[in-house]
Amino acid sequence: MFAQFDPLILARIQFAFTVAFHFIFPAFSIGLASYLAVLNALYLRTKKDAYLRLFKFWIKIFAIAFAMGVVSGITMSYQFGTNWSVFSDKAGPVIGPLMAYEVLTAFFLEAGFLGIMLFGRERVGATLHMIACLMVAIGTAISATWILSVNSWMHTPTGYTINDAGQFIPVNWLEIIFNPSFPYRLAHTLTAAYLTTAFIVGGVAAWHLLKGRGGNAGVKTMFSMAMGMAAVVAPLQIFLGDLHGLNTLDHQPQKVMAMEGHYESHPDGAPLYLFGIPDDEEQELKYAVGIPKLSSLILKHEWDAPLAGLDTIPDDEQPPVAIVFWSFRIMVALGFLMLGVGLFGLWARFRGTLYTNKWLHRAALYSSPSGLVAVIAGWITTEVGRQPYTVYGVLRTSESVSPLDAPAVGTSLLAFIVIYFLVFGAGVFYILRLMAAAPLPSEPGAEAAPIRTGGIVPAPLFDPYPPSASAE
Fold this sequence. Notes:
Low-confidence stretches: 442-472
Oligomer: single chain
Radius of gyration: 25 Å
Number of helices: 15
Helix content: 55-70%
């Protein structure tokens, strides 16, 4: 069935599928963990029941999303050992320790306090439970920090040397961890996670408002917090994305050329192409619609600043332009869409119609998955734009793949697709069912969990104070 396929293409498709599927869960759980910590802190400070309702409402959704993120991430290490064993051998001395640090510092922190966060409110006291919430939120951010450090090093490798076996050997760990693109990628990705969560929370609240549940204090609080977060974070995310793009221009100019659709160099100012059909064979952006010199203004802050094009890059060094060009536009369009919804919410708040404006509620509902789609589109832009390299400028993707036949890779790819859609499809369906039920005053929470991990403790054989004796 797969004998005629290229095993390299199948391995790349498999990794892209599993990573894209995995990425949506951390993007949601990172922001949701912080949201839960904020809700718990607000409840402890104000004792308002609405915050407790929301905490109990979202904690169950967080637990499922967190579990699916962990499980879907396991396949990453599986593929490093099967489909990308050459890459693992050569880059392992650098990447292996960083991944281990992520487990030792972040995953253990999350695992150690997750149970207390989920089930410990009535068992460990308010202070320790609040600390557990903070530790889980911090742990998710630390986890993202290490993973993004690894990914950023693959884009802007520094602090290494190459031995006789072709392996990357660490020379300076600070340069490896804090490589040139790491701060920008970390800020952009974490902000994307918070914005993604804000729009999911806002979309759920908007659903309930459209269902006529505006009298529910939890729903109103949820919508107010989400719209406030969107109004603040959306413009910040666009600003950070611009900084990240400027950093990419310095270190990976081919990627920016593909993002902009600049096949040709522009010595007197480059246009910003809004639309077009990239043609790699003809090295031309067909049917281009653009704004003259605006790309130079954005990237160089001068109207007439020259910008080099892909005509200065050898053909075997160019990324696939069409994928990068369109994924970048999807990401940017969704970013401005989220900015518009956030500003719409801000306008409705000042007008006093935040909970009654049906157009705002519909906009929030329909845009609720926009953060997830934008995250995936941004990831595609970043990773496909790095091609044809796994370690940019040093190790090619074609040199990183395992010596496998296409049927072996294709069979595992097919198995991943079937299992993922069955297992994780069921998980997503259950999350949507939970979201469809409004937070109620009687919302069940951790109090229903078992008290002892060892099971039910049997009653003593002899009771020195039987009920009859006590009555007498």
